[in-house]
Amino acid sequence: MKNLIFFLLCAAGFSVTSVVVAQTADPVPIIFDTDFVMPPADDSLALMLALQSPEIEILGITTVAGNDNWERALEVWAEEVLIEPSADPLLEIAMPRFERIMIRAALKRTGGRKRDAAKLLGWGRNTLTRRIAELEMTEAR
Which residues face 30 on adjacent strands? Predict the structure, then answer.
């Protein structure tokens, strides 16, 4: 466990001398800070390992530095997902995540008003309500 966290912190550019890792049964909560500077191999690898680790709880991911756009970050994400192919096709993995993000953003912008959020998304209110249910977005109901 300590070796994994040490690797993640090194790959993410942390000064490991300032990090103390406690041996506990609970996941270690971290906020993952990345700039996704191209090529983002170190941050991306560390993030992929952290997301798959039961010993780590990702509380948030920040991208305050860096100057790349989200399309390039998405492209890199897709390439990394395809390194170790899953049983699910890439779009079946990506589209629900993408829709959840768009729905949350629209609802946030409209203060939770589904009719207005649906309009921002180019949908009707019934479609938004159905997609929220299908995507199991309990926080948006």
Answer: 58
* Distance in angstroms (rounded) separating the CA atoms of residues 97 and 25: 30
Q: What share of the chain is helix, strand, coil (3-state, %, to 5)?
A: 55, 10, 35
Strand partners, 28: 56
CB 134, CB 99: distance < 8 Å: no
Least confident of 13-17, 31-35, 63-67, 119-123: 13-17
Q: Of the CATH numbers 1.10.10.60, 1.25.40.10, 3.40.50.1000, 3.20.20.140, which one belongs to the domain with range 88-141?
A: 1.10.10.60
Specify whether the CB–CB gap between 1 and 50 falls below 8 A.
no
Token code pair at residue 96 = 């629900």
